[in-house]
Amino acid sequence: MGAGRGPARGLRASVAGDGAAPRTREKPWPAKDLFGFRPLHPIQMPLSATAPADPVVQSVANAGLGSTICWGLREVHKYHTPLDLVRERSPERPVAFARPDAVALAARWFQENFKGDVFYAVKANPSPWVIETLAANGVRSFDVASLPEVELVSQLVPGARMAFMHPVKNRRAISSAYFDHGVRTFALDTHEELAKILDATGQAADLNLIVRLGVSAEGAAYSLAGKFGVDAYEAPELLLAARRATNELMGVSFHVGSQCMRPTAFQAAMTQASRALVRAGVFADVVDVGGGFPSVYPGMVPPSLAEYMDSIDRGFAEMMVHETTELWCEPGRALVAESSSVLTAVELRKGDALYLNDGSYGSLFDATHTKWPFPVKLIRREADGSTREVDGPLKPYRFYGPTCDSLDHMPGPFWLPEDVREGDYVEIGMLGAYGVAMNTRFNGFGDTETVVVNDPPMASMFGLAPRAIPVPRSESQNVVKLSRARGKKRRRR
Ligand SMILES: Cc1ncc(COP(=O)(O)O)c(C=O)c1O
Q: What is the pLDDT of residue 474?
């Protein structure tokens, strides 16, 4: 039973990225900062707006992969902390803070603790600084889900190993990924998609075909079940068809759901995968356990990531696989969540409602649609220019974003000092995954600047900050809880 990290058996070397790497220049970077943070390497900074924009990065930016992808188009500034930025600049548009050290640490942790190949799920945050930092720290495999993501990775990490893991792909995207970018690994969950992949690659004989299985998403904050994944009844026939379609790698993948709070979900999914393989009578060359590794948000304190690795090790040890079977994972959130926060300005206060210059059409999609109460800090610049983080007794607030849409509302509760006022800044933490990447230009907003800082994130799975964010309880929440408890008692009688 081989769980070892090995060379890609039978996998053709990627020919990705024959284009030149982006032009870069180095900026001065402190050997060690106030917080004892030591960057591993000076970050290669793409040239500023005065240089012609790189056409691939430009086209990816236009394809809507998030505003931070515009990194290659602009000068990027560095500050030690968000406070320094506010003191110097009093920014009028939202600012996304990038913490490359946090990404580097997470990358190294996964490389050292996952006993297989780590594919970064680009969708979580396609910012070039993220991709380049991951690559510089050993993560050179990428889970891509669209042609612009393929092009982006080809451009930024020439020779990267890419797996096109979206189970439903456009024919042109498959062809271009295969012929222009050397992608050989494709996911599928239907016979129709298998036929499409074969057709779009000219019946290629060197494909790695990964069958996405539907598994239970219990224990995950976001279920990814339902939309993708072949069910247990139909899986054996599809596995057999994929096995027959390639002489290269045939594998299984699944996704236990994003922000999975239960480590044992991985082992359980691997047991399900094993059953499907046994029923099909085939061995898998690849077992891809997907993403789902959690980060820290208010009210969500995940078990340590080591417990997830243990669960995967146990699951893999129990699977019927070859000695040479490769183990893969596709983390998105866990690698980047803690690396970014966003600085928003308070445009107006109406009671407990704060009107901010960023919202659900910007970086706060999850704060609206899944009502996540992200952690917040209040920053104030006084008339004399001094800047401080405001503390004092906290009260719960709700936020409204800058657009005219009433959906642009984040209920929170977000706990901030009682005297928040117009002109204050709210730093919203833990927005590195599916936060800054979700930005749109709706209603003329969304122009966000990216700035590098090296203060610690608000919470961390990797020891940079506490692994829990305390949630104060409001009186109204207590009332709801009490009345629910009473209701339960009555029913029991
Ligand atoms: C196929 C696939 N792999 C990996 C991921 C990353 O998941 P996470 O960010 O929960 O780690 C996703 C997220 O949607 C996905 O669809």
A: 58
Q: Identify the architecture of domain 102-336 in CATH.
A: Alpha-Beta Barrel (3.20)
pLDDT digits (tens, 9 = 90+) for 167-201: 999 999 999 999 999 999 999 999 999 999 999 99
Mutate to test the pocket of ligand 1, among 125, 224, 259 (most ligand atoms within 8 A of CB): 224
How far, in Å, from the CA of 205 to the mean position of ligand 1?
A: 28
Instruction: Write down the architecture of domain 59-98+341-472 according to CATH.
Output: Beta Barrel (2.40)
Q: Enter the tokens of residue 455.
A: 């203060």
Nearest CA to ligand 1 atom 7: 291
Does the structure show a pLDDT above 50 at 66? no
The answer to whether the CB of 133 falls within 8 A of the CB of 335 is: no
The predicted model scores a pTM of 0.84
**How many other CB atoms are there within 10 angstroms of residue 264's CB atom?**
17
> In terms of Cα–Cα distance, which of 334, 430, 452, 433 is closest to 42?
452
Domains of the chain by residue range: 59-98+341-472, 102-336
CB distance 294 to 261 below 8 Å:
yes
As a whole number, mean pLDDT of residues 53-73 equals: 39
Q: What is the DSSP letter of 176?
A: I
Q: What is the whole-number distance in angstroms between the Cα of residue 291 and the centre of ligand 1? A: 5
CA angle 431, 436, 440 (to 5 degrees): 140
Q: What is the structure's pLDDT at 159?
A: 94
* pLDDT at res. 37: 34
